[in-house]
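The following block was generated as part of the benchmark described in Methods. Ligand: WT7.
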Amino acid sequence: MAEGVYPVPERLLQDGQEKPFIDSLEKYKAMWTESIKHPETFFAKLAKDLLSWSMPFETVQNGSFVDGNVGWFLEGELNAAYNCIDRHAFQHPDKVALIHEGDEPDNVRKFTYDQLLREVCRLANVLRSFDVRKGDTVIIYMPMIPEAVFAMLACARIGAIHSVVFAGFSAESLRDRIRDCGTRLVITADEGRRGGRSIATKFIVDEALQGIDTVERVLVCRRTGAEVNWVQNRDVWYHEEILKARPYCPPMSMNAEDPLFILYTSGSTGTPKGVMHSTAGYLLEAAATVKYVFDCHDEDIFACMADIGWITGHSYIVYGPLALGVTTVLFESTPTYPDPSRFWRIIDQHKITHFYTAPTALRALRRLGDEWVQKWDLSTLRVIGSVGEPINPETWEWYYQKVGQSRCAVVDTYWQTETGSIVISPLPGAVAMKPGSATVPFFGIEPVILDPHTGERLEGDSVSGVLAIAKPWPSMARTLYNNHQRYMDTYFNVYRGYYFTGDGASRDKDGYYWIGGRVDDVINVSGHRLSTAEIESALVAHEAASEAAVIGGHDDLTGQSIHAFCTLKPGVESVEGLEKELILHVRRAIGPFATPKRVYVVHDVPKTRSGKIMRRILRKIVDNEADQIGDTSTLANPHVIQDLIKQLKTHIVA
Ligand code: WT7
């Protein structure tokens, strides 16, 4: 093996272990080629193997990127909740479907498939009693508790479209999302618990609902029992309603292309995009990637540490593992509570076989020292995954050696909210790993590297440019809620005939893909996606601010961090503490995860003669690469660069 290449771990191929579903590179290549040459036969077979249909499909795939009308399994009907629960509850009612690891270490709740069926049916009946119907949207704003999973599946069961909003979002951000999808029902909890602290979830919902008149009901789950404000005729308790409901609710037969959910994500303008996913195509590939990318078998215990408020939680806590009928883990706390061994303790305690987290968590844990990992029995692990941002080789090696004990496959999985499921990743039993590379495409995915300027497809090995995908795949987003034009413009009209990912990437001599990071105005902080425009509009809403420019600076821990340059309104003087206040202002406006690392109050920012802020230059200044700024003669105000460099230097010293 060449240096920097890690072969498929011996352990996965040994007798006595579960044999990998795909156990050689040749097999992967043959299947991938088949999936690209004959996608219809390939995915028809997969869809029949992995999903249960109440009505068979006839047309496997339809539509194109140019028309933006992609559909899969067209006449087919099925129900996602039935696929995730009922069929497994019939087969093995007592198998554990969901393990909830609470905020406090020994606070564990387990639900078998049979129990999951009853919980979800009851809640589905509660939703029906509120007159929630097929096609209605339901907002879920909840901590990481089992009821959040029940809520998603209860919606799916009756054909309502859930829109989970990450519980770290502020009232204002929640309000924008409620308004955008015009929902009548919000499901929430009294409080959340995270890292030993309480979060005033219901309070945030109450704030968010000010000025909203569509919401008729707020269903409140009791998590801590804290006293909460109560709005008569609007708020109802989850535990009370559930008692009135029958524990069986027939699943609604849905068309394959009926929407399963909306999930808002940041784009390059201030307004978040409501990414909409289909029922069958989405569910199929969520399941297929758990099976093939993670090589997950029936008796495995799958633990994804993401939050259900992001796509990773949707696909790899809820829909993927449950559609396959395996055991999934829902983790309420943080990696460092009560101490930095929490992840490893969970793996030991629950005998986890598959573990999935983000590089930023691994980087933080690695810094805290190996002793936290070494105390625990991690021998059940077979596949460990990474997602959300490029993983630097040092962190990869640490993950491989200390967590995987040099016996496990590490899958660096590249995908996006819009792709629905993993699109580039090694397969544990088949593809040799290279630290830092997401490696090879999943079935049905034809990645291409385009020249960013001409849009020309760069063929062959050792090329770099922007990453696009050449053909529709089942789990791709179908539209942006109420804004199909934006969907077309963002993904398909940038490079005609291709799906544009927004990422830069290269392909090496072995055909492996290396993801470089976003080439648009999206920044990635700890694997959380934020738009610079969204933060800028939060800043200029502050009374002192006139203009703001936000960039992602390099950060050893979080990948990128938010740096904001802010000019003040005429007549407003910069006072001590203003920068801090602006930081807090953004935090309040969007949510704690969007807290800028620095806000610099400045006199001016570099601009072109037409008034466009040159963020590229700001980025160089923040990253200490001012010597690489290059020609500034086209700027309207080239002198500001030296001023900024000076100002930032004094900041850093301070
Ligand atoms: C963006 C999508 C879908 C997972 C959670 C994030 C970056 C994601 C990787 C990876 C390098 C990655 C990309 C992508 N990204 N995974 N393995 N290597 N970069 O979902 O919020 O939709 O963000 O995350 O930049 O475009 P998201």
